[in-house]
Write a structure and sequence with these properties.
This protein has about 170 residues and is α+β, with helices and mostly antiparallel strands. It has one domain: HIT-like (HIT family, subunit A). Helices cover about 35% and strands about 20% of the residues. The strands form 2 sheets. The chain has a 5-stranded antiparallel β-sheet. Strands 3-7 form a two-stranded antiparallel ribbon. Helix 3 (about 85-105) crosses helix 4.
C-alpha cells in the first residue's frame, strides 16, 4: 500500500468507521462459507460469485418485493468511503448483471438499487453491500413496507431460480 493509500485508509478508519478491530462481521462469515444464526448469508443463498464480489438472496424480504439480492465485496469494507475502486466496480458490474437476471427470472417491471452508509444512513450490516430489488407497478415499495426475515430453506428456492436464469451470464453486460 502506498503512502497516500495508507493515509486515506487511516482517515477513513478514524472518521467513518463504526466498528472496532475485533468486529465479527455477519456478512464476512457467510462469504467464508460459515452458516448458522451468527451469519446472514448461507451458501444456499449464493447466486453468483467471483474473486471480488458475491451475490446472495437477502435474508430479509421487503414488502411485495421478495427474492431481492445483495451484492457484497469478498473482502471486508465497512462502507462506500472505504471501498477500493476495483471492488466497487466489481460490485456494480455484478449488480447490473443481477438486475437483468431478476427482470428475466421474476418478470420484474423495473429494478431499484439501494446502498446505505453508516447507521444514520440506514446501514444495519456494517459491511458494504448493494441491494437489488425487483419492482412491479403498484408494488407499494415507496410506501416503505417492513422487512421480514425469511428462513434459509425458502431463500434457497429464490437463489436457485436466479442461478437457473443466470446460467452462462456471469459478467454479461450490455
Amino acid at each position: 500500500m502506498c503512502r497516500v493509500d495508507r493515509r486515506r485508509a487511516a482517515i477513513v478508519r478514524i472518521v467513518y468507521s463504526h466498528v472496532g478491530d475485533d468486529y465479527d462481521c455477519i456478512l464476512c462469515r457467510g462469504i467464508r462459507g460459515e452458516s448458522g444464526p451468527a451469519t446472514l448469508v448461507h451458501e444456499t443463498d449464493v447466486v453468483d460469485r467471483n474473486d471480488l464480489a458475491v451475490v446472495a438472496v437477502c435474508p430479509y424480504f421487503f414488502g411485495n418485493n421478495p427474492g431481492h439480492v445483495i451484492v457484497v465485496p469478498t473482502a471486508h469494507f465497512e462502507n462506500l468511503y472505504a471501498m477500493p475502486a476495483d471492488y466497487l466496480h466489481a460490485c456494480v458490474d455484478m449488480a447490473q448483471s443481477m438486475a437483468l437476471t431478476i427482470k428475466e427470472a421474476y418478470g420484474a417491471a423495473g429494478i431499484t438499487l439501494r446502498q446505505n452508509n453508516e447507521p444514520a444512513g440506514g446501514q444495519t450490516a456494517l459491511h458494504f453491500h448493494i441491494h437489488v430489488y425487483p419492482r412491479y407497478f403498484d408494488d407499494g415499495y415507496d410506501d416503505h413496507p417492513g422487512e421480514y426475515l425469511v428462513e434459509p430453506v425458502e431463500r434457497a428456492k429464490w437463489a436457485q431460480r436466479l442461478r437457473t436464469a443466470s446460467a452462462g451470464r456471469t459478467g454479461w453486460r450490455l
